[in-house]
Every structure is written in C-alpha cells, then in structure tokens.
Design brief:
Chain A: It comes from Aquibacillus koreensis. The complex is a heterodimer of chains A (about 450) and B (about 350). Chain A is built from 15 helices and ten strands. Chain A is mostly helical and about 450 residues long. The longest helix of chain A has about 40 residues. The longest helix of chain B is centred in the first third of the chain and has 32 residues. The chains are: A mainly alpha (about 450), B mainly alpha (about 350). At the A-B interface, helix 2, helix 3, helix 4 and helix 14 of A face helix 2, helix 3, helix 13 and helix 15 of B. The structure holds CIS-heme D hydroxychlorin gamma-spirolactone and protoporphyrin IX containing FE (HEM) (2 copies).
Chain lengths: ~450, ~350
Amino acid sequence: MDNVLLARMLFGSSLIFHIIFATLGVGLTLMILIAEILRVVRKDDDYGILAKRWTKAVAILLGVAIPSGTIVAVMLALLWPGFIEVVGQVIALPFTLEIFAFFIEALFLSIYVYAASRLSSTMRIISVFFVALGATASAVLITNVQSWMNTPTGFNVVNGEITDVRPWEAVLNPAFGYTAVHVASSAYMATAFVVASVAAYQLLKPNLKASEKTYHRKGLMVALVFGAITSIWTATNGHASAVGLHNNVPVKLAAAEGLFETQSNAPLAIFGTPDPEANRVVGGIELPGMLSYLATGSLDGVVVGLNEFPRDEWPPLFVHTLFNIMVGIGTLLIGLSFGALAYRFIFKKREYPNWLLIPIIGSGPLAMLGIETGWIFACIGRQPWTIYGIQRTAEAATKSANLGTFFVIFLTLYVFLLVITALVMRFYFRRNPLINEFNSQSPSV
Amino acid sequence: MEAYVAIIIIWLFLFFYALGGAIDFGAGFWSMFYFGRKDTTAASIANLYLTPSWKVTNVFLVLFVVALVGFFPHAAFTLGSIMIVPVSFVLILLIIRSAFMVYSYSVQKYTKAFTYISGITGLLIPALMLSILPIIIGGFVEVVGDRHYILYDRLLTSPTLYAHIGFGLAAELFLSSLFLSDYAREAKSMETYKVYRKNAIILGPIMIGMAVAATMTLIPEAMWMVENMASQWHLFALSVIVFSVGYSALWWPSRKGRVGQPRVAVVFMMIQIGLASFAYGWSHMPYIVYPKLTLYDALTNNQMFYSLLWGYGIGMAIIVPLFYWFWRLFLKDKRYLTNEEVDDVR
Ligand code: HDD
Ligand code: HEM
Ligand code: HEM
C-alpha cells in the first residue's frame, strides 16, 4: 500500500481513538463542576457522590487520554512533516498555548483529587473550575489549528516560500469562532448523553434500594437537562458551521450535501448516495429549496455545486453519509432529551418506564458516534487538501517506510486498551458499589 | 542569535523533562521492585510521589516536542524520517505504561500484574529515548536523495548503542533513588530513606561509568562530536566535581543524627545533569542532525519566533506560581505525606 494512505490510516485511527477519551475528559470535568455547585446550592450530598464517582471515572480515562494525546501530537510531527513545516511557520501559537492549558488541567486535577480533604468547598469548586477550563481550552486551541487548515490565513506564499507571516491573523481565521463553539458544545453534549446512558442502565436494574433509585434519578436528570440544552446549542452552531462552509469552503458543503450543479433553490438531500453520473443524490429524500434556505437564508440563494471544481479536488463522496449521520443523531437526541424532560415536568411522572429508559441507554453510544462521524467528515471532507488550497495531503506526508507494521501494532493496541478500559471501569464500580458511598458518607469528596 | 535562543529554550525543556521523566519512570520501577514487601514502605513512598505527578511530567514531554517543531519546523522532514521507528516504540511503551499504572490502582485483584507491566515498560522508556542520541549524531544514518535511512545492522551491532542504553537505565534509577530518598526524609520515613540512600550510593558510580563508556564508544562513530566534547572539557570537569560533592553529601552528618543530606545531594545532582547536558548539547552545535541539518536551516521566521517567545513567556508567568503551590501541596505538606487518604481516592 502506498505510504500516504498508510500514514492517513495510522493517524486517523489514532485520532479516532484519542477523541473518545478526549471528549469525555472535556465533558465530564464540566459535569463534575456542575455537580459540585449543585451540592452546595441544594445542600444535597447525593451530588457530592455523583461528583466523586465521575471524578473516579475521569481518573481512569486519563490513564489513556493523556498518553493517546501524546501519541497524536508526536505522530503529527512524524507522519506529516510537510504540514508541520508550515504549522511551525504560521500557526505554532495555539500548540504552544495548549501546553499551558494542559498544565492547568493536570495541576488542578491533582489538587482537586488528591488534596480534596485539605481544601474548603469553595477552593474545591475553584480547582474543578480550572480543570474544566483547562480541558475546554485545550479542545478549543487544538480546534484552532483544525479551523485554520480549512481557512488558512495570516501569510503569503511567494514562489512556494511562506512570507509575511501574521501569527494572530492566522489564529483568528474565519472558521475559528464557529468551529470552536461547535466542537466544545458537541463534546459537552456527547458526555451528557453518555452519563444519561449509564444512569438509565442502572435504573433498569431490578431490586434497587430507594436511596439508590433517587441517586440515579438525580444523575439522569442532571444529564438530561444538560444534554437538552447542549444538543439545541450544538444544532444551532452546527448550522452556523454549515453557513461557514458555504462562505469559506464551498466544495466541502457541496460534498456533504451531494450537490453537483450550482443552483438557486437547491434541495436538501437526506441519505441516499451521491451519483456523479446522474449528477444528483439517488435513493435519498429531497426537500426542495431547503439547502439554499439553510445555507443562505433565502430559498433562491445560490449554492455552489461540485461541478465548479476540478475532479481531483473533490473529497470522497461518502462524506455525505457521514454528515447525514452526524446531523441525524443531533436531531434524534434533541427529540429524545426534550421528550424525556417533557414526560417528567409536563406530565409530572416521577418514574421513567422501561420503554423510555431503553432508548436513553442508546443515546450515549449514538452521541459518541456523532463525534466520530463529525470529525471524520471534517478531516476527510477536506481531502485532497491538508491545508485547504495550499498543501495537498501527499505533500504533507512523511517519506519513511515501516508505516504498515506500525499501523497494525497501534491498531491492536487501541482495541486492546478499549477493552481493558471498559473492564477496569466495570470492575472498579462493581467493587465499590454505590451502597458503600451512602454508608461511609464522608464529607470529603 | 535567534537560533541559539531557541535551542537554549529547548534544552531547558529537555532538561526538566529528563529530570522529571527519570524520576517518574524510576519511581514506577521502584514501586514494582518493592511491591508487596512487608518490611519496607519503599513502594508506597514511590506511589505517593507518582499519583499526583505523572500527568504533569508527561506535559513536559509534549512541551519539548511542540517547542522543537515550533521553533525548528524545517527539521521535521529529517527528524520525522529518522525518528519514526524508535519514537513509535517509545509511544507504544508510554501508553501501556500510563494506562496500566493508573489501572493498577483501580483493580485491586490485578494490582500486582499491572504494576509489573507498568514498571517494566516505564523502565525501558528512558533507555529507548537515549538510544536516539547516537543516531542523530550521524554515525548510523544514510542519506539517499531526500530520504534518510537508519543503518540498523550497524546500529544494532555497535557498542555505543548499548552504552547509551545502559547510561539511560543507570541515570533513571540513580536519580529516582536519590530523589525518593529525599522524599522519604520529607515524609519522615527513616527506614525508607535508608533503602533509597543505599540504592543511590550503589547506582551513582555506575551512572558516571556508563556516561564515560557512552562517550568512549562514540569515538569510532562520531569523531567530530568527541572532539567538540573535548573542547568543552572544563564544563565536563566541573560537572564531575559537582557530582562528587553531591555524592559525598550522602554521608554528611545532619543535625537530627541521620547520616546524609539528601536535599543537598539532589540539588547538586540537578546542577551536575544541567552542566553535563548543556556541555553535551553545546558540542552538538550547530547541527540538529549531523551533517546535513543545522539550526540555521531549520529555524522558523522572525515573526513566529518572537510571538512564540511571548507565548512561552506569558504561559510560564502563569504556570510557575501554580507549580509552587503544587509543590507545597504534594512534596512538602506533612498532611499529604503522612496520610493514608491517597489510597481511597485514587
Ligand atoms: C455529538 C456530536 C455532534 C452533533 C450532534 C452534531 N455535530 Fe456537527 N460536528 C461535530 C459533532 C456534532 C464535531 C465532531 O464536533 C465536528 C467535527 C469537526 C468540527 O469542527 O466539529 C462537526 C463538524 C460539523 C461541520 C463541519 C465543520 C467544518 O468542517 O468546518 C458542520 C457543517 C456541522 N458539524 C454541522 C452540524 C449540524 C447542522 C448539526 C445538526 C444537528 C450537527 N453538526 C450536529
Ligand atoms: C478536537 C479534538 C481534540 C480534543 C477535544 C482534545 C482534548 C484533549 C483532552 C481533554 C486531553 C486530556 C488532557 C489532560 O488531561 O491533560 C487531551 C490530551 C492530549 N491531546 Fe488531545 N484533543 C483533541 C485532539 C488532539 C490533537 C489533534 C492533538 C495533537 C495534535 C492532541 C494532543 C494532545 C496531547 C499532546 C495530549 C496530552 C497532554 C498531556 O500530556 O497532558 N489532541 N486532549
Ligand atoms: C480528534 C478528532 C479527529 C479525528 C477523528 C480525525 C480524523 C482524521 C482522519 C480519519 C484523517 C485521515 C483523512 C484522510 O486522509 O482521508 C485525518 C487526517 C488529518 N487530520 Fe484529523 N481528525 C481529528 C482532529 C484533527 C485535528 C484537531 C487536527 C488539527 C491539528 C487534525 C489534523 C489532521 C491532519 C494534519 C491530517 C492528515 C492530513 C490529511 O489527511 O489532510 N485532525 N484526521
């Protein structure tokens, strides 16, 4: 297999692995903060127990999140030296600042976890606030590089040389705002549904004690409310991202929607397969005019189609499916979380029946799938460019051999670690059941 | 000028990571070595240090890599193609080590097996990292067109590779023992102090011997480097003197009737490693990878250079006070050092 393809497979699989842990790291730290605050505001120790158990989960996840992040950072330099050469000249700042976000997160996390009993509850809230801030900041900063890859600014190219570099202009590239907000909100959202899944799964168990039931119900409620808010927010700023694509990276939007001809009144195609022979999406549902409306705000706005671009600048057409999956999941989860909240607050039912708990169990894996498909869409939808319009993926890639062997080794390792992590979680929370927490009731988290 | 400022910053980061990493991986090894021993608390002292610190140590590794490619982006192609094999193995060991170290605290049933996995993988990491040094000195790289190949058959049969690996192992074990002896003193555990002091006494001369062996075996492979090192002899000589003073501090009397002043020894060893690594790095100049790639070729542009300086400056100003607080909480606070609380929250 050729080198570039192997490099893409190795790097892509490493990121697909890292993002699982990274997303949960970003989201859970914020949820811990919320639980710590609720505990003080409501004077209810159940929230303290929630915070404590989520913190334990974070501690386990970090065992893989941190080294897998180190892997992707180092691999970025090893596998894409051509890309790094440009990064180092134009957009090295966010990587630098990100280090300090990592420091803040790591230092405050240790303080929050291991010095808990020596801190007042205000100090505890402050430290977990900085943990959450550090985690979100590191996601935003890495996304900054990613948004710059889509809309590279802040430099000129003269005879193939990069000149006249303006580092801050690169940081404040046109795609940064909406991309960063969408990434952060979708990470919160995905975590909320993962937490909701776990709580719903616990509630399905027979023979729960009353205290356990209330505890899990509180966890479920926090997660559902948080999930409902963040999922609406994610859809709104996801829409902003699509408008951003329309303005900045039209070929990506065209591929996402399977639009071939430039046209006003462009239809929105849901599912189906883009067919370059037929010049349209076959086998899907078409909503006439909707794409024009979503991208430009009016039914007769003009949306650029793939045929405006040379064939060798088209991304692979299957990104249409990835995009549909992401948007579909977003829509579905808005429905689910609001439906479940309505059941609780409008119909005033305290207990969720099984037919509602079972779909909630599915929501966590679905939300993670949304994260994965969204990212794979963002990276593959940029093909054949690594830096849109500036550098092709083949020019960025390393020339060294041996990548095939490492792909197999790393992939095996990732699968193995996923299994081990799941087993460790299960084992730990079995060995330390909730009942013990009620019994010990230690004031310290 | 800019190139030298940049390389000194990178050397500083590397210096901190070398110390932090040696202590971190070494502590992991000792926690395995003394695992389950009823007669000593050496393992739990090592863990007491490791649990809050390993994340922070790891950030220094990322800091080093990011600073290197940020300041010297044009080195990426060459470094990338030479490093891919050894660095990928380091990464594989690193993720296994961190994961199993964290997991060993969570699954009591398998603590022993997990501690062994993380102890051994951790032990190998610094050794593997040091094996990269003889490669970038240029003795084992062949350049064909714009591709670089490592001559594995020559590398793997060369004594200098094994001398470097040996040095990595000895330095890691020595520095971590020395540091943990001081940490044990801080935790008022005399008996553990004695265990680690004894380790440090044995390992110190081994480390120095290995360093000399690594340099000597370099002669046939990279004469240019050895000549440069010879011209830095005063720095190396100074570092040997500092080492001797620090080593002797392990026997200095203290007011409390204990033999040895571990804090003094630790500080002197930090200075020693600083001097020696600086002299080594300076001998390497101006090459990043000999003989093709120099600092000047690899440096980024002026605008980026200065904005990076600002970035690191402001970041450090925020982070240094935090480090101080962290140090007070975990390396000095008696309540942390003598409390069992760690066992139930980690
Ligand atoms: C839980 C996950 C999740 C959900 C439900 C959604 N997204 Fe998303 N989306 C992401 C998770 C995500 C992501 C993983 O965070 C991406 C990948 C790269 C990025 O910038 O964010 C992304 C990228 C992304 C992009 C590409 C940005 C670019 O390449 O520059 C667009 C246009 C959208 N999203 C639009 C939407 C819309 C209209 C949604 C409607 C509900 C939606 N997303 C839901
Ligand atoms: C948008 C996707 C990403 C998100 C949300 C994300 C977020 C995170 C989070 C939350 C952590 C744990 C940090 C800690 O606790 O210290 C982490 C670790 C890390 N990530 Fe990612 N990351 C993403 C992609 C990347 C990419 C593409 C790179 C490299 C270029 C990267 C580099 C790192 C590094 C180096 C670490 C380890 C930091 C340490 O040593 O503490 N991440 N990331
Ligand atoms: C964490 C979530 C991410 C996932 C799951 C992901 C996924 C992928 C995949 C699958 C590829 C291979 C694409 C192909 O070649 O067809 C890729 C390439 C790449 N990604 Fe991402 N990516 C993520 C985040 C990022 C971020 C935050 C950055 C920016 C630093 C980034 C930079 C790159 C680069 C430089 C390449 C290689 C060049 C290229 O193929 O264009 N990725 N990624």
